[in-house]
Amino acid sequence: MSNKQSQRLVRAAQKAMKHAYAPYSQFRVGAAFLTSKGELFSGCNVENASYGLSNCAERTAIFAAIAQLGPKLNIRAVAVVNDQGVPSSPCGACRQVIYEFGPDATVIFPTAKGWKESHITELLPEGFRFK
Ligand code: THU
Predict the structure, then answer these.
(1) High-pLDDT (> 70) share of the chain, %
(2) Among 27, 74, 110, 114, which is least packed, fewest CB within 10 Å?
(3) Please, which pLDDT band fits residue 2 given cuts at 50, 70 and 90?
(4) Is 117 a known active-site residue?
């Protein structure tokens, strides 16, 4: 990812984060990704009083893209941000969902040492696939 493209993704994720519905954890998350065709999608976390039903920002963004574009989605790069300024990489469930639509995706997230870019297979070795 060029600096310019990762910055664009981080900014889009920060914008989406403002829409988060997180009254239980108070941990607002935003995610934004670029498809291989150059389209940009974003999402935020949406919690529920039945806590386990909460949806992460990454999956909100991916499911919204599928709903809009149809099932042929290829994720090139995804950025994830939170409003607490703390290190946070995508949860395990979201790694698997990112891998489904982006087996070669770059994942951009905040660490204690600043922004990190990792390949999805570094975050999710041996992800599950039907083949
Ligand atoms: N969350 C995300 O949206 N993405 C992640 O990668 C980790 C966790 C959300 C889920 C929940 O609403 C809140 O952060 C606290 O776990």
Answers:
(1) 100
(2) 114
(3) very high
(4) no
* Per-residue pLDDT, 125: 98
Radius of gyration of the chain (CA): 14
Give the predicted TM-score (pTM) of the model.
0.97
Tokens 């990454």 belong to: 58
CB 97 within 8 A of CB 121: no
Does pLDDT of 50 surpass 90?
A: yes
Instruction: Please give the distance, rounded to the nearest whole angstrom, from the Cα atom of residue 109 to the centre of ligand 1.
Output: 13
Pocket residue to mutate for ligand 1, from 46, 54, 107, most atoms within 8 A of Cβ:
54
Report residue 58: phi and psi, to 5°: -60, -45
pLDDT band at 99 (very low <50, low <70, confident <90, very high): very high
Distance from C-alpha of 110 to C-alpha of 88, rounded to nearest angstrom: 6
State the catalytic residue, choosing from 39, 58, 117, 126: 58
Q: Whose CA is nearest to atom 3 of ligand 1?
A: 56
